[in-house]
Amino acid sequence: DIVPFNHLLLMATADVDQKFLGQFAKRINNSNPFLSSFLYKVLGLSVLLAKKLVRARRLRKLDTTRDTKSLQLYHHIIWLSREGLIMIEQFIIPMVSGMLELKVLSYKLRASFYHIFVLFHNHPSVHQTAIPSFTPTTNKSKGVDRRSIASSPNPFEGGPVQPLPPGLSPVSIPKPSAAFLLPVTDYIPSATSCFTEAAALADALLSGSHPIRLSVKFEYAAYMFDCLHDADESTKLAQQAIKDVYNAQEGMDDDQFEDAAILVHELGMRIKRNRSGSGGSNTPKLGGEGSTPRAGSSPSTPRASRTIRGEGIVPKLPVVTNGVGGPSGTSTERLR
Questions:
Q1: pLDDT (tens digit per residue) in 238-264
Q2: What residues does 319 pair with on adjacent strands?
Q3: Where are the alpha helices (DSSP H) in the chain?
Q4: Global pTM value
């Protein structure tokens, strides 16, 4: 089974999500240490999971006939995702109703974990790289399905008591290889519902250019293409997210500008991949041709010349300034 590039798309928003998780955990450490501790735990789990997903991308084949490192890796991905989902649903979401940004991020992370379940553990599988279910074999020489073979009759009930011929003894049908970690079922309805709820919260609570909102829309678009196989809706969602950035009136500081720039660029690449039908190519490297540089990558470039690109369009983003060049929360000077 060839591992497609699509799995690596899960990591496009990992940096943004992890950065905000760390900021929120630090901010509420004194006022709510219990919630802060779980945010730190999810942050650490997210870092480990990101590395596992990158390793899964690099594997060319998954050997399911024996206990290999590749199979252990896939099991570890499912286990980390399961533990992360438990912490999000049972401990974090019930405590963040009054924290708008953290609430949206929590619902987005819940959808992300279900996204991983769909990719790696769904039944029926959405693609060939999910952990497979082992099916009973058939005796091709005689055309006999081994599941139809009855067990030996009870000797106390009469009838023949001699053992069955060699090779025809009853066999038990093994469960899917990862069933001990997570129930084997169709996770698409749950994942779709979680993404829909996270997107609705992002639209209602955050500005169009907020990095968390863009993170939600980017992974939702990737999920539509990878799991629902709906390139049209995925493209529409990505296009609308970019338009919302163009129309955003709220101010943003330098860090948010950089995060939004990267995510808008990735949304533009998402649209191109959807239209090409490939679903993925090499992730554009920061600082490369056509990419958006991070802060400090080009010291000679003035702040006002940095742009956010999406499908070759340069939007006008509001930036918070105090009229002198320093950050403030009063004016919304637009940059070209």
A1: 999 999 998 988 888 888 888 888 899
A2: 333
A3: 14-27, 33-58, 69-87, 100-121, 188-205, 211-226, 231-247, 254-276
A4: 0.69
